[in-house]
Specification:
It is a single chain. This protein is α/β, with parallel strands linked by helices. β19 and β20 form a beta hairpin. α5 packs across α8. It is built from 14 helices and 21 strands. The structure holds cytidine-5'-monophosphate. Cytidine-5'-monophosphate binds next to α12 and β16.
Length: about 400
């Protein structure tokens, strides 16, 4: 299952470090190649010799080897690794990671990591529930770190509560699940539209909207994380895709977005229309800046933009799946289902503007998804990254049915 996978196992200074011996055994037994990195404090709990013997590789504890003067390159480690697992992750290391305090080899490796990072926190219950720890955990989650929740139970301090590191078997299961998910959309070509469009009025002004592009970018990132080949067509935004393997095409207006989408669509197995496309554009773009005249009013004639989702819906073949978004203020279900039909979509994701946790500039979103058969999939308010994951879990069912992926 983990054959050929390169895992960096980071170990920090908590009593749970003894469990990392078992975790390392399990990883190696399952075929992974493991490079252990320890903080100086971790070496007080378990000797590096134990880990080097089990991994078959010298353990890295310092920036350079005291005997040979050999420099350990954290950058090379980041290139070599498929996954970085930090178990146990103490409150101190979690705090350093959240704030970029790279005063040891492990946190320095984290800051250079190109691969995904998973942490298994371990600490006393009071430390775990302290607002500072929770703030740092939230921050790491936002940065994309996968957090394996600690267990509740008896702690080394003699107290009982939440904070005990997840058992090595659980961590192994999470690692296997991570790699399984990474392969689920292998071979799938996905097209995502995201962000707002800007419809130019003159050289300095445009008609736009509040879309941040976050939801569409999270969807593109998640599709890529699961192995899909992703093309992301985006209007002007400040967010970036997490990987430069995502083919990002930047556009400004709805017409430009439409042109690019038309080119990419025939190749796509899946298209997700997350862009907030302007329905109308000024009929004429003034070559010169429009001046304030003496008149009280200024009339600008607007003409209809192409509906990208609907146009591509007409061209859709039976092997292609399309997903649209609906942002509604009233008659939400009715309007969403109308769009599903009129744009010939397979799925529609509804986010309600009435919901305080959903919408344009928010970090969170709350969605309900429908398919053509009127089946409803409601979700709680979550971070946009988690919402992206839920959406892809649900729509993957269609990809399995269409034969694009084997379930
Ligand atoms: O009709 P409405 O704009 O509410 O539909 C929203 C859905 O249609 C979204 O998925 C959006 O990306 C897509 N859309 C589009 N081109 C447009 C307008 C909307 O692709 N011109």
């Amino acid at each position: 299952m983990l054959n050929g996978k390169h895992i960096v196992l980071g170990i920090t200074g908590g009593i749970a470090a003894y469990k990392s011996v078992v975790l390392l055994r399990l990883l190696v037994k399952n075929g992974a190649e493991v490079q252990v990195v320890m903080t100086p404090n971790a070496c007080e709990f378990v000797r590096p010799l134990t880990f080097s013997t089990l991994s078959g590789k010298p353990v890295i504890t310092q920036f350079f080897s005291a005997n040979s003067g050999e420099w350990h390159s954290h950058v090379d480690l980041g290139i070599w690794a498929d996954l970085f697992v930090i178990a146990p992750a103490t409150a101190s290391t979690i705090g350093k990671m959240a704030n970029g305090i790279a005063d040891n080899m492990l946190v320095t490796t984290y800051l250079s990591a190109k691969e995904d990072v998973m942490i298994a926190p371990a600490m006393d219950l009071d430390m775990w529930r302290h607002p500072s720890t929770q703030r740092n955990i939230d921050c790491l989650k936002k940065d994309g770190v996968i957090v394996i929740q600690p267990d509740a139970g008896e702690l080394a301090s003699g107290l009982s509560g939440k904070g005990r590191m997840a058992e090595p078997e659980i961590i192994l299961r999470e690692i296997k699940e991570y790699f399984r998910r990474k392969e689920t959309l292998k071979g799938i070509k996905a097209l995502v539209t995201a962000g707002p469009t800007y419809e130019k009025l003159d050289p300095v002004r445009f008609i736009g909207n509040y879309s941040s592009g976050k939801m569409g970018f999270e969807i593109a990132d998640e599709l890529h994380r699961r192995g899909a080949e992703v093309t992301l067509i985006s209007g002007p935004v400040s967010v970036k895709p997490y990987s430069d393997e995502i083919n990002l095409i930047g556009v400004e207006s709805a017409r430009e977005m439409y042109r690019e989408a038309l080119k990419c669509f025939p190749d796509a197995d899946l298209a997700v229309f997350a862009a907030a496309v302007a329905d109308y554009a000024p009929e004429k773009i003034s070559e010169l800046k429009i001046k304030r005249e003496n008149e009280e009013e200024l009339e600008i004639k607007l003409v209809r933009n192409p509906d990208i989702a609907a146009e591509l819906g007409k061209r859709k073949t039976s092997r292609q799946i399309t997903v649209g978004f609906a942002l509604e203020t009233h008659n939400e279900k009715e309007n969403a289902l109308k769009k599903l039909k009129s744009k010939n979509l397979d799925w529609i994701v509804l986010n309600s503007l009435q919901d305080p946790e959903a919408g344009f500039m928010k970090e969170t979103n709350k969605v309900t998804i429908w398919n053509k058969e009127n089946s409803k999939f409601p979700f709680e308010a979550k971070s946009k990254r988690e919402v992206a994951s839920d959406i892809i879990d649900v729509i993957s069912q269609s990809l399995e049915k269409s034969g694009s992926i084997v379930g």
